[in-house]
Specification:
globular, 15 helices, TIM Barrel, alpha/beta, three-stranded parallel β-sheet, 351 residues, single chain
């Protein structure tokens, strides 16, 4: 397939096909993809503004029945070291976040076998009492709540929304291809269920993000299939605010024998995300997995958002990756790339 022709098509604002996306990933070189992604980014965002959000990841429990092969964070239900955060601990974490200028929290946890839907509603009402945006409960958690309660997804989402849930993170997407999902996380919701939660949330007026964790058991074609499924849903609902691709971290997981994704491979995948997802405005860099310098470079490979300050992060840290950045460091990295840093909210409105 002619890479030059695909590049010209994309620069002209024409949508590329899954086959053309795969050709770019397989045969396009890093510089070609970077140039194209950067050009498209400048078309979408003519001002050199790079956004970031101040928040913290609160993992309310590490007890999980899913036992995903790529996760180093979870504890089995019978593990005495497993825990659930008390509301007092939640309150302390939220108040600290607010003191540091945070306007939202990212609330996610393991698939706990025993907690009823009412427990999560109570948790949301408690957090909302602290006056903060709740970006919480990824689609596998929502599917889990529905399964335990016997209620349809829509009803679960309405109840969570009424209790204080504002928006939904794109966690648990990994690769949106059932072959990969069944091999890596057979107890987690399948592709259509993940997309179904997001579609329902969008219909209820909630904005959500979409993610991709790549670099494990998937093929390049399956990565493109993932992008195509996200783009297709965005055409229907327009509810995704951002896309965040990040590489699998193998240390301390069942898949620790797999090689780590290189910065080269990461930047190619990031660039393709910007090129292929013509209907999603914001692409986020992953400094949490890549470190500050590659994240800075990401701003020339399609990313226009630096993500979160991550006052707290446990899941990637459990896989042995320990990058930390303060708000000041993020602003300095963005300015060092010749861009203007701006703090944002979940919906990308500026603070």
């Amino acid at each position: 397939m002619d890479i030059k022709r695909i590049t010209e098509k994309s620069l002209a604002g024409e949508r590329i096909t899954a086959g053309e996306g795969l050709a770019l990933l397989e045969h396009g070189d890093l510089y070609q993809l970077g140039f194209l992604a950067n050009a498209i980014r400048r078309q979408k965002h003519p001002e050199p503004v790079v956004t970031y959000v101040i928040d913290r990841n609160i993992n309310y429990t590490d007890i999980c029945i899913s036992a995903c092969k790529f996760c180093a964070f979870f504890k089995a239900p019978e593990d005495p070291d497993g825990s659930v955060l008390s509301f007092a601990e939640l309150g302390e974490k939220i108040e600290e976040t607010k003191t540091l200028g945070g306007a939202q929290i990212l609330l996610q946890g393991g698939l706990h076998p025993d907690k009823p839907l009412e427990f999560y509603e109570e948790m949301l009402r408690f957090i909302k009492g602290h006056g903060i945006h709740i970006h919480g409960f990824s689609p596998p958690e929502v599917c889990h709540f529905a399964s335990l309660s016997g209620l349809p997804i829509r009803e679960v989402l309405i109840r969570l929304q009424q209790a204080g849930l504002d928006s939904i993170p794109g966690g648990g997407a990994e690769i949106l291809c059932d072959r990969v999902r069944q091999e890596t996380a057979p107890r987690k919701c399948l592709t259509d269920a993940w997309l179904g939660v997001m579609e329902e949330a969008h219909h209820l007026g909630m904005r959500t993000t979409a993610t991709m964790m790549f670099g494990h058991l998937e093929t390049l074609a399956e990565r493109v299939e993932h992008l195509a499924r996200v783009r297709e849903l965005q055409d229907k609902t327009g509810g995704f605010t951002a896309f965040i691709p990040w590489p699998f971290q193998p240390d301390n997981t069942v898949l620790s024998h797999l090689p780590k994704t290189t910065a080269f491979q990461y930047l190619k995948m990031l660039a393709l995300s910007r090129i292929f997802l013509d209907n999603i405005d914001n692409i986020q860099a992953s400094w949490v997995t890549q470190g500050p310098k590659i994240a800075q470079l990401s701003l020339f490979f399609g990313a226009n958002d630096f993500g979160s300050t991550m006052i707290e992060e446990n899941v990637v840290a459990a896989a042995g990756v320990g990058f930390r950045l303060s708000e000041q460091e993020i602003r300095a990295l963005v300015e060092g790339a010749g861009c203007v840093p701006r703090q944002r909210r979940m919906d990308y409105s500026l603070v």
